[in-house]
Design goal:
The protein is of the alpha/beta class and 108 residues long. Helix content is 42%, strand content 19%.
């Protein structure tokens, strides 16, 4: 399933989608960035509530397919612009991380 299909199917809002055809093959939830770098897998959808520019760096290093901000967390415009420049897909949902993970799991 692609990030674009996942966003549409799950009702997640798209903040930026520079790589809409990127495949999603799993889910990782985490907010401790060093932990995410060591454990998130390539092509995972990463669910977080962290909203600083370091999230984009970790998403790039971990090569996740997208970053999903849970609980309605909205990153600032400069973070979205950095994600566009780095080719990182960003989505947002008002759902708690647990509920978003269940929705993602069911979709995949």
């Amino acid at each position: 399933m692609t990030v674009a299909e996942l966003a549409a199917g799950c009702g997640f809002e798209v903040l930026c989608l520079p790589e809409p055809e990127r495949e999603v093959d799993g889910v990782y939830i985490g907010d401790l960035l060093s932990w995410v770098m060591g454990r998130a897998r390539q092509d995972n959808a990463w669910i977080t509530i962290m909203s600083n520019v370091n999230v984009i760096a970790v998403g790039t290093l971990s090569d996740v397919s997208c970053i999903l901000f849970a609980e309605g967390v909205l990153p600032e415009a400069d973070i979205i612009e950095t994600a566009k420049a780095k080719g990182v897909n960003l989505l947002v949902t008002p759902m708690p991380a647990y509920e978003a993970a269940i929705k993602l799991h069911e979709a995949l």
